[in-house]
Amino acid sequence: MGGVLSQLGQLFSQTLPTVIFVFILYVILRRFFFAPLTAVLKKREEETTGAMARAREQAAAGEEKARQYEAAFQAARQEVYRHREAARRSILEDREATLKLARQQTEALVGEAQARLAAEVAQIKEGFRTTCPSLGQEIAETILGGGARSGEEGVRP
What we know:
Blueprint: H1 2-154
């Protein structure tokens, strides 16, 4: 057993410089390579999460602006509809007024025409009253006077 321990001691003394060298290498790599690399990775992660948080904030702000835009657009659309409805009502009122005026003018023209026709009918009736007796007299004389001659011609034996 003594030989095994002496071999282990000798092996340990031979590997001690390698262990010390690996330990020094570990310290140097940790301090000059892994520490800055870890810091860079940590900073990158913080910036990434910060950028994602800013992106979420900007997306929320964008959605809010889109809602505001939609609300303003809807209000403008309703205002256009109100103006259009007011214009339509105004046009309908103007049309109704024009139709009413046209009806009144037509009724006035019809009334005037009826009055003229009534006057003409009255004038013609008056003319008939004055000319009918004399015309009747002439017709009677023509028929009676001419009928007697016709009757004489018709009575031949």
